[in-house]
Amino acid sequence: MDLSTLPFPVAARDAVRELKSSLIRDVANAAMGRDDVLAFWFGESDQPTPQFIREAAIASLGSGETFYSQNLGRPYLREAIARYLTGLHGRTVGPERIAAVGSGVSGLMLAMQLIVSAGDKVVAVTPLWPNIVEIPRILGAEVTRVPLAVTNGRWGLDLDRLLAALTPDTRLVIINSPNNPTGWTIEEDEVDAILAHCRKHGIWVLSDDVYERLVHDPARPSAPSFLRRYEPGDRILSASRRPGR
Predict the structure, then answer these.
(1) CA distance linking residue 152 with residue 132, whole number of Å
(2) Which domains does the chain have, with CATH numbers?
(3) Is the pLDDT of residue 242 over 70?
């Protein structure tokens, strides 16, 4: 039988095929392995994972930790992450609120699958790593972009424009600070205003905190954070990088 003649296309569904490709990935794929190109593409360090983390991974494999664990991750790992976040942000974060996942993309996808349904309205502060705005589109949500503005040579948030976009029918707002690719970092008063508005309307906040430790102020352990203001009942999800990376 010639399967090519059957009226069933071998293709992904329309919502996936219509997603925009990542130009960052296109550039990286073209330049990887070349010594005449600086690797200014992915949001990662140019240094390898620290030795103590690599040794811990090796020790884990050597001890036979190669079987399935709890869905949310190994308890001792979640407890360590909970202690770290509690100390960093001054808010008690219990291990029951931690999910240790294999990658940032997995964490963001799971977070949005948890709360976003087809037809929901999602607002994202942009420019932004492409995958973050495409994930809700995969889920059938409508994405509204609120762009950062450049004033006097600096990226900044148009807070009034963002709050106007966060209408009562908004399901989720996505904020990446410090931001990839601009380096913009949200201000403390902006966090307060956004959180108050989202509490009023029941809007979820997905805070991509992967770069939260990239601040150049010895007096500040991390960038302004929604987690630092968490109160029971808040609709806040945070995706952050493991300590030490």
Answers:
(1) 28
(2) 51-239 (3.40.640.10)
(3) no
